[in-house]
Each structure stands twice: as C-alpha cells, then as structure tokens.
Design a protein that fits this description.
alpha+beta; 5 strands; SMI1/KNR4-like; 5-stranded antiparallel sheet; 31% helix; 175 residues
Length: 175
Amino acid sequence: MVDEFDVAQALCGGILDRARAWAFVRDFAAVWAEPLVEDAGIRAQDLQRAEEALGLTLPAALREAYSLLGTRPDLTGNQDPLLRLFELFVHDEFGGVLVFRSENQGCAFWGVRLRDLGQDDPPVLVQSQDGWVPFLAGTGRFPATMPRMSCRPRREWAAERSSGCPSRPEGIGRV
C-alpha cells in the first residue's frame, strides 16, 4: 500500500540528526495520525513571548519542535506530554534545567541544561528517581520519541469512526 509506514525500517540506523527526526515524525503522522502541516504549529511570536517570560532563548531544535508539533496533542500529549509554552519551567537542580516534557503522572521530566541552551541541538536529560541523567545526545533526536504509538494506521480507524464505535474483543473495557 502507498501509505504503509514501517516504524522499524524508518528507525533502522537510528535518528542521527534533526532532519531525519523530522522526516520520521512527518511520515509517522501522515499514516498514524493526521499529516503535519507547515505553519500549523506554534507561531514564532508566541515562542518569542515564552522566551521573554522565561528570560532565555530556546534552542533551535526545541523551537522547531514547538513550531511543528506544539499544537498537536494527538502526537505529543498521550503518555509523556510536551509541555505547553506557558508550562515550561526551569528546574533548579543540576545548575538549572529548562523542562519541556513531563511524564503524565509527574514522575519524570525531560529538559535541557541552561548552560547548553546556546547550542542548536543540545543534549536532553531526564529527571527521575536517579536524578538528572543523559537521555539523548541532542534535542533534535527527541521529536522521534514524541509521537504516540497507536495500534493501527489512521486509514483503518477512520473508517470505523465514520461507521460508529469500533468493535472490541469480548471482555475488553468491562469491569
């Protein structure tokens, strides 16, 4: 099929740079959600206002993430949501960390050290019970971890939605 998307194949060799991360996210969204549309994310002036409120400048890779995915909770808000701009905050530990993602129950946070904000693609740290530890070598690889992983491509569940509720196996969803 034309719209098949093999996640394993797409990730073969890893996500080595931002261009590959964005290509993966676009391809994933096109098949498993709704396609990403240019200029449909958070506007540059809103990003600038958030930076002014925080008193810092977001790295290029994080600006790109918000510009493309910032208005797509279907891709970024399922398990460990990308924080909305007004939710961004600086965690005091580890010399200061700009937090941009939170585990849905507040058990872990992802962020970038303040001292690394001048880099276009700074390393991402995760804070959990072990403190702040390295998560990814660069923020630009982080977008590939954001999309929710659904069980079926959009083309399959779209047909079910239009014809009513999807069927479910016996016993699922019953208490």
